[in-house]
Design a protein that fits this description.
By secondary structure, the protein is an alpha/beta fold. It is built from 15 helices and 23 strands. The two termini are 40 Å apart. Its cofactor is Mg(2+).
């Protein structure tokens, strides 16, 4: 039996298989999911991990035992599951542990229309009911339909961003042995793109590198391949392919904030005056550029549930996060790394400039990137930082502590899941950014001594 209290997180389910998450648990969650949501039908998909097939099958048994019909999409990315939920009008469950190591697996759940299920929107109730149902079995009554949704997913994305008329581009894609290896060929089929594939073999053991593009060491192979092949752009997807990281033609990493600003400008050209969501640690260049293009920027806390809720509440056309999650109103307010990549390819392919020049206008400031510090007493560290910066800038506590000076800002916030403080700093020049970053880290470091 798995450990329900441990594997149910704020936004999803994730744990080590089978010690924390096993088939008996998955079956109980399937039954609980139907009971709590009242679903008459459910759509299910899974990633390429070896444990995903039996776990998904167990969930299906549990759901069908509560008289729900199940549409089983088989292999898919997380944004394919969102497409399935949105296009079919069904609640859905994706079996994946995203970028986590091979021994992990998990579930991402949504209601009909890809509306996320989190701790305060049904996930806690599903956990509690599943705990009561572990070991309780019943004959499957609901029907099971296997349905290939890959071609429909690809067609839908191509209908949102038309790449048929772009100039020919050479594109290196590092799928990290994750689901991008399954979805990218379908989406790019027939487009004026010369695809150079890296690690497209589906392998949940991740034999080449972790499928986590936010870590610089996982981008090295892609950066080298872009330069050596003379490619126009490189794209790196995480394990479940809902995040996408961009590399320019020089092999340099492009900030997700710059991508957020670029896509926002494109969406505002189609939807003048629309609202754009960004979390509080994206670059200050994002709201500036949104305003310059006639849009309304709205700042949120970090975390996809906050972004999605705010997008739906304000009917925002687009939202972006520092972690390379990108959300689209035209995609049921859900995130899709593939759709973001297609916007970048369109922006690049509609004119002759190189990618570094194309995105240059959207990268205005020098950023530290996210720096994690292990701190047992997070409250004391935050108190000392507040004290040190008193009178030097404006304070904001929407999510952790944000201090904004005349030409710099930083945010220091606690991790939701680990004893870590996360620092992001930005300034108009590199010297100022480094000075602010080093000062905050020195204060935090003294608490850990």
């Amino acid at each position: 039996m798995g450990d329900l209290a441990k594997i149910f997180k704020a936004y999803d389910v994730r744990g080590v298989v089978p010690d924390e998450f096993d088939e008996q648990t998955a079956e109980a969650v399937g039954a609980a999911f139907v009971e709590v949501t009242g679903a008459e039908s459910v759509v299910v998909a899974h990633d390429m991990r070896e444990s995903s097939v039996p776990l998904a099958a167990a969930f299906v048994r549990g759901a069908r035992s509560r008289r729900a019909d199940v549409v089983h999409a088989g292999l898919g990315s997380t944004d394919l599951l969102y497409y399935a939920s949105g296009s079919l009008g069904l609640p859905g469950v994706m079996f994946t542990a995203s970028h986590n190591p091979a021994r992990y697996n998990g579930m991402k759940m949504c209601r009909s229309g890809a509306v996320p299920i989190g701790g305060d929107s049904g996930l806690s109730e599903i956990r509690d009911r599943a705990a009561e149902l572990v070991g309780v079995t019943a004959e499957p009554v609901g029907s099971l339909i296997e349905k290939d949704l890959l071609s429909g997913y690809a067609h839908h994305l191509r209908s949102l961003v038309d790449l048929s008329g772009i100039r020919p581009l050479k594109v290196v894609v590092d799928a990290g042995n994750g689901m991008g290896g399954h979805t990218v060929p379908a989406v790019f089929d027939g487009l004026p793109i010369e695809l150079v594939p890296l690690y497209f073999e589906l392998d949940g053991e991740f034999p080449n590198h972790e499928a986590n593009p936010i870590e610089p060491q996982n981008l090295v192979d892609l950066q080298r391949a872009v330069v050596e092949s003379g490619a126009d752009i490189g794209l790196a997807f995480d394990g479940d392919a809902d995040r996408c990281w961009v590399i320019d033609e020089r092999g340099e990493s492009v900030s997700p904030s710059a991508i957020t600003a670029l896509v926002a400008a494109r969406e505002l050209a189609k939807h003048p005056g629309a609202t754009i969501i960004h979390n509080l640690i994206t670059s200050h260049g994002v709201p500036e550029i949104v305003r310059e293009h006639g849009g309304v920027p709205v700042r949120t806390r970090v975390g996809h549930s906050f972004i999605k809720a705010e997008m739906a509440r304000r009917d925002a056309v687009f939202g972006g996060e520092h972690s390379a999650h990108y959300y689209f109103r035209d995609f049921w307010f859900a995130d899709s790394g593939m759709l973001a990549a297609m916007h970048v390819l369109a922006a690049l392919g509609e004119q002759e400039r190189a990618l570094s020049e194309t995105v240059g206008a959207y990268a205005r400031y020098h950023a530290s990137g996210e720096i994690n510090s292990a701190v047992a007493d997070q409250g004391e560290a935050l108190r000392r930082v507040r004290e040190a910066f008193a009178g030097r800038g404006e304070f904001d506590e929407l999510d952790g502590l944000t201090v904004t000076g005349p030409d710099w800002w930083f945010n220091l916030r606690a991790s939701n899941t680990e004893p870590l403080l996360r620092l992001n700093a930005e300034a108009a020049d590199q010297t100022k950014m480094s000075a602010i970053k080093d000062e905050v880290l020195a204060i935090v470091g003294k608490v850990t001594e």
